Amino acid sequence: MASQLIKNIYSEETNEILAATREGRNFLLSGGAGSGKTYSLVETISGLIEQKPLAEIACITYTNAAAQEVEHRASHENLYVSTIHDFLWSTIKHFQVELKETLIFLINDDGQNLFKVTLDNGEPDRVESIDGDVEYKEYVRLRSGIVSHDQIPVLAHAMFLSYPKLCRIVNDKFKFILVDEYQDTSHLVVEILLEHLARTERRNVVGFFGDAMQSIYDKGIGDLEAYKGVGKSKVTEVKKKQNRRNPVSVINLANKFRTDGLLQEPSNDIDAPNMEDGKPIIGTARFFHSRKSNVEVARSYLRWSDSSLLTKELNLTHNLIATKAGFPELMRVYDGDKILEYVNRLRSFIKTTVPRYCPEGKTLEEVVADLTAGKIGNELKKVLPTDGQAGYIAKYPESYRLALQQHFLDLTSIYIDKDMLIDDQKADQSMLGGGGTTRDSLIKHVHRIQTLIKLYQEGAFNEFVRATDLKILSHKDKFNLREEIRSLADLEGKTIGEVIEQAHKKGLVRRDDRLENFIRQRFYVYAQVCDLAFSEFQSLYRYIDGKTPFSTQHKTKGREFDNVLVVMDNGRWNNYNFEAFFTGDGKDTVIERTNKIVYVCCTRAKKNLAFFYPEPSDAVIEKAKELFGEDNVIDLDKFK
Question: How far apart are CA 75 and CA 424, in angstroms?
Fold first, then answer.
């Protein structure tokens, strides 16, 4: 009777899952875009609680935002929800003796670049002991036992492999472990859950929710093909075919991109978002091309709403967006600096050719003078900038003059990446369970200032007071605060450096230890950023906040918009190739990766979808006609 009642309450897929769990089988729910996988996850949690009211359930997710959503929709005293990294850390952090032994082993393992500790000359160093506890922080200091986000899966995998008692403890604690967005999960995590935990006599049930076609991050396992089947470390697959998001035209197109045999169909629920008056929305899916590379020709033809809530233009890289969104110089500093590339060229030359040369205490200018002295021809060419580096130096002479004044070793220690400027969605992966970010200390600091300005402009006074460093003790303090923030918000012509200094002097956002350390360690980066207009940072802020019609194709995963325009430009990124995607002429791995990103972009559209391909070959156009239908392939050059 109870079993029949459950069948009446839950969906068909959830009933299949619950049947598998009653038999002690691990499971995999495969659902395409818009299928309601999170809804199935919440239903499954409810069903498991009904089956085993006293059982502890762990639900682990890829991002903090996903963890918060599950907690909001499925709160229960026996439910533990966290990001993957926090879950792993919580299982190993109390075993400090074993943690230290494992960390020291990984540091001294020549095959582990992620745990490499080096001497000042770049040579690997060996670590014999670690003082204090091993800790999980936002930064890495391996000699002191401080590990960060990237090290956690490797460290946990080594711990579970070496210490079976960990497996017993996790199995005893959690009867069920559910993994959301499994395709983005490291293969090491899957091995822990399906292989290591299965080695113990008492075992739990592990369930996975996700979509192999949306595995667009390189570090994820991608799919569970190797684990499908019967056995302790295997999973039973349950397929969810309905699509509640996309119109019929988009579903039909997206099905042509799927390679796993799961073909979606419109939802039969009349209340589904992609239903209107009891019928599925048809929508549009079109392919535009032009001999012009400027996407403006497609925008002009479409004339869609420019609301960032209704329309998104998807580009493959942030670099392709930076100029459109108004922060090209910030992107140049963080992702296009060829002066640091030249510094590393010199560092490699010293290491391989003149290892006895000691650059300690010398500026870049002095090192260049030493290494070029007396050299001619090919020998001189080895220590001069490459053509690309020389072109960059000629274009940005002030940056080069700044670099020449810095200590050479300080420059070689600078690691910079666009993820320190922009948090892509993948950057929200668990940093200490609290909205982690890969932004560096400088960008975090300026972000605080702009957030303060925004709160003031929006009249959010309570949040504003909590966000400022200035203490409010009297009515006079409130008046002074209002005058100070008005002055700060008057940004006409101000540089980022001037805004940082004014916010500090007025006590609104003080320069803290993290920023001071950044200035000491990365003055070359700090000085360049400070010379840029603060308005450029505000453009970046609006872009990160989703207030522009632009997004990367990766960042849009999991989101949806009425109108989606996909720009098919590789942006010199060799991991993807849209030409090869259409023609099939290219590396299989690149075509597969491109196919998945196209599928993800395609399935963001709730009403209208358009692809814009600049300067396509005849072969691309012919394939587009096959995929989209001849009437939906439009030559924009005919509409001048």
Answer: 28
